[in-house]
Design a protein that fits this description.
CATH architecture: Up-down Bundle
Radius of gyration: 21 Å
Number of helices: 20
Distance between the termini: 28 Å
CATH class: Mainly Alpha
Number of domains: 1
Low-confidence stretches: 411-423
CATH superfamily: MFS general substrate transporter like domains
Helix content: over 70%
Largest sheet: none
Mean pLDDT: 82
Structural class: mainly alpha
């Protein structure tokens, strides 16, 4: 099977959803202006996004093999295309909630399918780990692009203007393009379907198989790693535009644009990780990066105190800390794709959908937990305290990674999931 076209399609799918989902930080900032909602109320958008991702993944992931990876992704792209065409004409706080709920459902279907498809288009664990890192890197390129796209539609002179909703027409066009490319890309899913038929499970058996994975000690530790990583990343990513505006006094468009540094640094970090992890033990890379991330928080956040409060609308007037703090993404970046690849590489291909479902569920729960907690801390105690909050989960993640490494099977031994108890 020629995998080039389907790989390009996977990258484009991720690109579209990266822009749409990670616009939540920008939309949180904008709905405060447009609809007069508080920071705590605005943070609910993260829940609409992430809880819909979690719910869909939990209920549907184990059935994706039966539906077909390609059909599932096409359905998801159709959903978001329709919603993006509707929302500019019917814009309200309720519609933004529905938009992120639709995006969450669609992304859950897409992510489970994409993660599962990686097992069909790669030939080794090393290739799987590398492609996973590059895919997650390109996801952050989408996030980076989204910041600039959304900021171009924001009206600094009229903060309450809703003209920025027109950006969704552009996103609808990208979604339709991704749909057409995927529709024309060949994907051979026969091997997975044959393996599924051999097990001859009912739909309830499919669901039960996913639940059984949660009982495995290695999976429990992995879930903890994924949960706390996404909690840290999303709490910073969702609230960085508001931090830039309220704490650093940047204009709305600059606040959004400067947040793109975080996305760019995560993209670069994952690209470099795709190269480094081929040669260096993953635990050394990840722990070094997390220690550096903690050090950066301790160095940069104190620098945001005693800012003048004068509104900044010029690039030359932006304080250095606005450039420095988002570099935390460079150090956080390698963690998520690495642990996902490790856990998936220990599973047979027909189990990837179920495991991917668990990844998406607990990632989503981590994301919404981090964003809501950060939003309430931000509203009650200020932005500095909110970002110091990341140090606690960071320490827990380091501890869990040590445990995760110790539980890995020795090189050359059978994967820990190969026994009958995992089915």
């Amino acid at each position: 099977m020629n995998t080039t076209k389907i790989k390009i399609s996977l990258f484009l799918n991720y690109f579209v959803f990266a822009i749409l989902l990670n616009s939540v930080g920008t939309v949180i900032l904008q709905v405060q202006h447009n609809f007069g909602v508080s920071k705590g109320a605005a943070s609910i958008l993260e829940a609409f996004k992430d809880l819909s991702i979690a719910g869909t993944s939990f209920l549907v992931a184990s059935y994706v093999v039966r539906i077909g990876y390609k059909k599932t992704m096409l359905t998801a792209l159709a959903f978001v295309s329709i919603m993006c065409l509707v929302i500019p004409s019917v814009n309200s706080f309720l519609m933004t909630k529905l938009l992120f709920a639709t995006a969450g459902v669609s992304f859950a279907l897409t992510k489970v399918s994409v993660f599962s498809t990686l097992g069909l288009v790669t030939g080794s664990k090393k290739e799987h780990l590398s492609l996973m890192s590059f895919l997650e890197s390109f996801f952050m390129v989408g996030v980076l692009s989204g910041n600039f796209i959304f900021s171009a539609f924001v009206d600094n002179e009229h903060p309450q203007s809703r003209s920025w909703f027109a950006v969704y027409y552009l996103l609808a066009a990208l979604s339709i393009l991704a749909f057409l490319l995927l529709l024309s890309a060949p994907l051979d899913e026969s091997a997975v379907r044959q393996a599924e038929k051999k097990e001859a499970k009912s739909l309830s058996g499919d669901f039960g198989g996913m639940l059984k994975l949660i009982l495995l000690p290695l999976v429990i530790v992995f879930i903890g790693c994924a949960f706390f990583y996404v909690l840290i990343e999303q709490s910073i990513m969702s609230w960085l535009p508001t931090f830039n505006k309220d704490v650093l006094s940047l204009s709305t468009s600059l606040s959004i644009q400067m947040a793109s540094i975080l996305s760019a640094s995560i993209a670069l970090g994952r690209f470099l990780a795709g190269l480094l992890l081929r040669k260096i033990d993953w635990i050394f890379v990840l722990l070094t990066c997390l220690l550096a991330a903690g050090a950066l928080v301790l160095i940069t956040v104190p620098l945001t105190k005693n800012m003048t409060g004068t509104s900044i609308s010029s690039l030359k007037d932006i304080p250095l800390v606005a450039f420095a703090f988002p570099l935390i993404g460079l150090f956080l970046a390698p963690v998520y794709p690495a642990i996902n690849s490790i856990i998936l590489s220990n599973l047979p291909a027909h189990k990837h959908a179920s495991m991917s479902g668990l990844i998406v569920v607990f990632s989503a729960l981590g994301g919404t937990t981090g964003s809501i907690i950060t939003g309430h801390i931000f509203g009650a105690y200020g932005g500095q305290t909110a970002f110091y909050f990341s140090l606690g989960p960071l320490l827990l993640l380091i501890i869990l990674l040590f445990i995760f490494k110790k539980m890995q099977p020795a090189t050359g031994t059978a994967p820990v999931f190969s026994s009958g108890g995992s089915h």
